[in-house]
């Protein structure tokens, strides 16, 4: 069950973003876009600006191919992009608040035996999401569609791929402080993320943490960053299997053509994430 009431805002935003991306060449009017959210011009403008921090017209420029290509050109290497954002070092970036850990070989073999995963479903600016933790470490952040089941059996099945032997229990009260620290600009201590991964996957996901908010890179650039310039296809597979959305920012990897490409949790949500971050980074 949801820890909070589902918020209709993201669904309205998502419909408008989908309409904008499909019709941006026609430069749709505010009234046409507002109609997708079933709102008046005034209320839609206010809703959208509250969500994105900019007007729908301004937001549209962050979705264009030219803008994406310019960001790819300006982010020549992950290290340079990190320096430009004022982040020193390359081990713990992504706003200096995510620490990524891989399970030990012994833990990998046990497949979660003896571990307890606590979970809850919360609302975010990008719709509902499933949050799972092992101790004080996040092991899953997965966006959900409104119609997806959130009963105990369905949730347990989501964790079974990586942690088939773990005990899975709902605990929204314990996870609420952690959820409050994820989609926020408030001061916070580093968030610890625990993943079950191959050494290659871990390398790729660590590279993703070096992409500053508001920047994008290509699959080829990630492959080069981990010292395997011919492995862009394998990089794409690793990115697509990321179990901790947003915090391990796989949405910041796009095609070298400038097209945003696919996303595990939907192309519209990826567009929303990239536009939202670009808008806030541009302030």
TrEMBL record:
EC number(s) reported in the record: 2.1.1.63
GO molecular function: DNA-binding transcription factor activity; methylated-DNA-[protein]-cysteine S-methyltransferase activity; sequence-specific DNA binding
InterPro entries: Homeodomain-like_sf, HTH_AraC, MethylDNA_cys_MeTrfase_AS, MethylDNA_cys_MeTrfase_DNA-bd, MethylDNA_cys_MeTrfase_DNAb, MGMT_N_sf, WH-like_DNA-bd_sf
Single Gene Ontology BP annotation: methylation
Record keyword Membrane present: no
Record-annotated HTH araC/xylS-type domain positions: 14-111
UniProt keyword Oxidoreductase present: no
Key words of the record: DNA damage, DNA repair, Methyltransferase, Transcription, Transcription regulation, Transferase
Catalysed reactions, as listed in the record: a 6-O-methyl-2'-deoxyguanosine in DNA + L-cysteinyl-[protein] = S-methyl-L-cysteinyl-[protein] + a 2'-deoxyguanosine in DNA; a 4-O-methyl-thymidine in DNA + L-cysteinyl-[protein] = a thymidine in DNA + S-methyl-L-cysteinyl-[protein]
Family: Belongs to the MGMT family.
PANTHER family membership: METHYLATED-DNA--PROTEIN-CYSTEINE METHYLTRANSFERASE
Protein name per its UniProtKB record: methylated-DNA--[protein]-cysteine S-methyltransferase
Species: Larkinella humicola
């Amino acid at each position: 069950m949801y820890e909070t009431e589902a918020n209709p805002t993201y669904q309205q935003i998502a419909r408008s973003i989908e309409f904008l991306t499909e019709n941006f060449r026609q430069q749709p009017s505010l009234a046409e876009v507002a109609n997708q959210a079933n709102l008046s011009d005034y209320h839609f403008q206010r809703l959208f600006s509250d969500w994105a921090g900019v007007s729908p017209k301004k937001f549209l420029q962050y979705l264009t191919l030219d803008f994406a290509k310019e960001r790819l050109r300006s982010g020549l290497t992950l290290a340079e992009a990190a320096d430009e954002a004022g982040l020193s070092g390359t081990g713990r970036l992504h706003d200096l608040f995510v620490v990524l850990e891989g399970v030990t070989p012994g833990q990998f073999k046990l497949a979660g035996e003896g571990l307890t995963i606590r979970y809850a479903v919360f609302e975010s600016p990008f719709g509902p999401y499933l949050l799972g933790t092992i101790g004080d470490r996040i092991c899953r952040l997965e966006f959900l569609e409104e119609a997806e089941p959130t009963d105990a059996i369905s949730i347990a099945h989501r964790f079974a791929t990586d942690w088939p032997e773990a005990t899975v229990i709902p605990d929204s009260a314990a996870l609420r402080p952690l959820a409050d620290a994820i989609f926020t600009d408030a001061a916070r201590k580093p968030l610890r993320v625990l993943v079950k991964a191959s050494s290659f996957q871990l390398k790729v996901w660590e590279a993703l943490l070096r992409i500053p908010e508001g920047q994008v890179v290509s699959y080829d650039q990630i492959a080069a960053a981990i010292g395997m310039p011919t492995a862009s296809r394998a990089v794409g597979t690793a990115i697509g299997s990321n179990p901790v959305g947003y915090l391990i920012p796989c949405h910041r990897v796009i095609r070298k053509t400038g097209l945003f490409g696919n996303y595990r949790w939907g192309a519209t949500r990826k567009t929303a994430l990239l536009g939202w971050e670009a808008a806030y980074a541009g302030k």
